[in-house]
Design brief:
It contains twelve helices and 15 strands. By secondary structure, it is an alpha/beta fold. It folds into four domains: 84 residues, Chorismate Mutase Domain, subunit A (Up-down Bundle), CATH 1.20.59.10; 90 residues, D-Maltodextrin-Binding Protein, domain 2, CATH 3.40.190.10; 64 residues, Periplasmic binding protein-like II (D-Maltodextrin-Binding Protein, domain 2, 3-Layer(aba) Sandwich), CATH 3.40.190; 85 residues, ACT domain (Alpha-Beta Plaits). The strands form three sheets. Strands 1, 2, 3, 4, 5 and 11 form a six-stranded mixed beta sheet that branches. Strand 3 and strand 4 form a beta hairpin. Helix 1 crosses helix 3 and helix 11 packs antiparallel against helix 12. The chain is globular, with a radius of gyration of 23 Å.
């Protein structure tokens, strides 16, 4: 078959794809009408993951799982935009890892509003100025993001979902690698790439900027300038990816949370986050944790933070397997309440 014949075949397939996507869009619109009528959440992560797994299982062609997920992420993003004018607040500025995590969860078709602080993200969601918020909660090498933990203490918001994102820093510029005279980025990113920079650009002293987005803006305008950061910056500022994944530690993942007024319905494979404060007496923490062992509830994480309410009082944050509607976990929470001065279920979401 000739090249021209192959292209005609592709055009014919694309025409059918567009017809089917528009047919799907019509059904999606009807779904949105039903959800609004019944007061249901527009975004349904439990349905999303079930659909993606089903599509991957049905695939018998050349497309790998990562490609199927990427394609349908944008198909579902367009569907969300059709169902409602969905707005997502995230810790800005635009182009940061949190922005990239938000796009990874919701796609490019919905609206994004960068916020100046963690508190602003919570505030936007609390006041219902946006539908969801995205904030970092922990990094595999640097630990918990304490600002997020602290805000949950007084916030009525729930965890609705999570995003696990490998942090891959890249070298980007409008010039060639040989023409680079200066490198800009956020101090944290420069620290993560210190070894690579020392080997590859020993004569350049990198300049710190308040964010990787600000650094990218400078690099886009200044001849001979480069920036270190996420690939989204190259897309936003018209930069070329010169080197990929240059961070010194190969495995560096950040976990982000999706926050909302409601928690996610059960999916069959869930995680629940709980916050509690123990009484100031000997053995109180031990007694608080006993119910988790009694009911064989696996605890994957525990963090402590000063409560800021009374001197030497601490909040404990735990992640456990299961959904808050599971009877065993309900029983654990009930027993936990008997040993603690404060207990709060922060939310359940797909694991």
């Amino acid at each position: 078959m000739s090249l021209e014949e192959l292209r005609v075949k592709i055009d014919r397939i694309d025409t059918e794809l567009i017809r089917l996507l528009n047919e799907r869009a019509d059904v999606v619109h009807e779904v949105g009408v039903v959800k609004k009528r019944d007061g249901l959440e527009i975004y349904a992560p439990e349905r999303e993951e079930k659909l993606l797994k089903s599509l991957v299982a049905k695939s018998e062609g050349r497309l790998p799982e990562i490609s199927i997920r990427a394609i349908y992420r944008e198909v579902m993003s367009a569907a969300l935009a059709l169902e409602d004018d969905l707005k997502i607040a995230y810790l800005g500025p635009a182009g940061t890892w949190t922005h990239q995590a938000a796009i990874g969860k919701f796609g490019h078709s919905v609206g994004y509003l960068p916020q100046a602080s963690f508190a602003d993200v919570f505030d936007q969601v609390s006041r219902q100025l946006v539908d969801y918020g995205v904030v970092p909660i922990e990094n595999s090498t640097e630990g918990a993001v304490t600002h997020t933990l602290d805000l949950f203490a007084d916030s009525p918001l729930k965890i609705y979902g999570q995003v696990m994102m490998p942090i891959q820093n890249n070298l980007m510029a409008k010039c060639s690698r040989e023409e680079i005279k200066q490198i800009y980025s956020h101090p944290q990113i420069l620290a993560q790439c210190r070894g690579w920079l020392g080997k590859n650009f020993p004569k350049i002293q990198p300049v710190e900027k308040s964010s990787s987005a600000v650094a990218a803006e400078v690099a886009a305008a200044e001849p001979g300038a480069a920036v270190l950061g996420g690939a989204l910056l190259a897309e936003m500022y018209g930069l070329t990816l010169l080197e990929e994944s240059i961070q010194d530690i190969a495995t560096n993942t950040t976990r982000f949370l999706v926050i909302s007024h409601k928690t996610c319905p059960p999916t069959g494979d869930d995680r629940t986050s709980v916050m509690f404060s123990v009484k100031d007496e000997p053995g109180s923490l031990h007694r608080a944790l006993e119910p988790f062992e009694k009911f064989s509830i696996n605890m994957s994480k525990i963090e402590s933070r000063p409560s800021k309410r009374r001197a030497w009082e601490y909040f404990f944050f735990v992640d456990v397997a299961g959904h808050c509607e599971d009877q065993d976990l309900k029983d654990v929470i009930d027993q936990l309440s008997k040993h603690c001065s404060f207990v709060k279920v922060l939310g359940s979401y797909p694991a």
